From TrEMBL:
Keyword Ion transport carried by entry: no
PANTHER family per record: UBIQUITIN-CONJUGATING ENZYME E2
Molecular function, one GO term: transferase activity
Domain UBC core, residue spans: 3-118
Record-given protein name: Ubiquitin conjugating enzyme
Keyword Ubl conjugation: no
Active site: C93 (glycyl thioester intermediate)
Length: 118
């Protein structure tokens, strides 16, 4: 468990110290606790030159206790119409977060993959 915590802390530190991938912003809300590393809430701006370019979406990553052995769950908290997003729940459905998950992948890698489905 301690090595899992170290990994999660390192992943969060990477995002805070080196910045988020392009088109992402940290999302601060009144009920978000900065010491809760089991969740990451970000805003995603739609990429230029796509049907999503004028949009801004809230994306939540919920990190399981056994991370990185198991992948985080990514869910859009703002409705988005996309074939890789479950309409009713906002759950992101990409193989990287399911069958192709590898423990070497980081939170940054997940955000980059998520951005790629735009």
């Amino acid at each position: 468990m301690i090595s899992n915590s170290r990994r999660l802390i390192a992943d969060h530190a990477d995002l805070h110290n080196n910045g988020l991938p392009p088109n992402y912003l940290f999302c601060v809300t009144d009920n978000q606790h900065s010491d809760d590393l089991s969740q990451l809430l970000v805003m995603l701006a739609g990429p230029h030159g796509t049907p999503y370019s004028a949009g801004l979406w809230r994306l939540q990553l919920r990190i399981p206790e056994d991370y990185p052995a198991s992948p985080p769950k990514a869910t859009f908290r703002t409705r988005i119409w996309h074939p890789n997003v479950e309409q009713s729940t906002g759950a992101v459905c990409v193989d990287t977060l399911k069958r192709d998950w590898e423990p070497k992948l980081t939170l940054r890698d997940i955000l980059v993959v998520r951005y790629g489905i735009s």
